[in-house]
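QA checklist item 7 of 12: single-chain prediction sanity check.
[x] sequence parsed
[x] length recorded as 86
[x] structure emitted
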Amino acid sequence: MTPRDLLAWNVKKLRVNRGLSQERLALEAGLERVSISQIERKRVNLGIDSLGKIAGVLGCEIPDLFVEPAMGEQQPENLRRGRRSV
């Protein structure tokens, strides 16, 4: 996998595991929602400051965003649509 592939995989995996929508992750990281979408679709190169903000919200270190998935690990699924109660 390329670094861009790894970033897309891990951002989505960590975001979904924490039950965060793209919108919520973007809001808490001080980024635009479209930026999170573009990261997960491998459409953008991200700056180190933005990586740090995303890692902070996801509760991980920047290197964790580039970890190879385990052999046979399934692609992270999308969260269900709609608002979630807090």
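[x] summary fact logged: The two ends are 36 Å apart (CA to CA).
[ ] second reviewer sign-off
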